[in-house]
Specification:
Elements lengths: L1 E6 L2 E7 L5 H10 L3 E4 L12 E2 L4 E2 L8 E2 L1 H6 L3 H11 L4 H15 L3 E2 L3 H12 L5 H9 L11
Antiparallel strand pairs: 1-2, 1-3, 4-5, 6-7
Helix pairs in contact: 3-4
Length: 153
């Protein structure tokens, strides 16, 4: 099952729930957000940034790509947030090592795809460690890319 996670009227994340106890996992997911909508059979398939008006998912002319440059992704963070992230990544604690991996993966990427579940999970790690708020994570991940941010490769 493919589920659109809605926060603040916007698709903030797309989650694939593996076969098995889909109902239980869906219910748990639905309790943690504004809405969770099964989009498995929808065409076109909604993506991050689509809006939800309480009844329908709408693209609202959202950009066709959520692939942005690494610099554009980095620039979505405030300097104070980046400083906190780098400070928390120093050292050898499990939290620091996890942050180092997230930072390393960003460095190895050719571009950042805001609609990918691993990108979203990396940003959620920052929330879980208290380095950014959930509101900032949603803003970073769901603000449609500008023409200057879009990866052109």
């Amino acid at each position: 099952m493919i589920v659109a996670v809605i926060n603040n009227g916007v698709v903030a994340q797309i989650v694939t729930i593996p076969d098995g106890d889909q109902t239980g996992m869906y219910n748990q997911l639905a309790q943690s957000c504004q809405a969770a909508i099964d989009i498995t059979n929808m065409s076109p398939q909604p993506s991050v940034g689509w809006t939800f008006d309480g009844a329908n998912l709408n693209s609202n002319g959202s950009t066709s790509t959520w692939k942005i440059t690494k610099l554009a992704f980095n620039s979505r963070f405030q300097v104070s947030e980046l400083m906190a992230i780098l400070a928390a990544a120093a050292g050898t604690s499990p939290q620091a090592l996890e942050l180092q991996i997230v930072i390393q993966r960003q460095g190895l990427a050719t571009y950042i795809d805001l609609s990918r579940s691993d990108t979203q999970a990396g940003v959620e790690i920052l929330v879980s460690f208290g380095l950014i708020t959930q509101a900032r994570a949603t803003q970073i991940l769901t603000t449609p890319p500008t023409s200057q941010e879009i990866y052109q490769g």
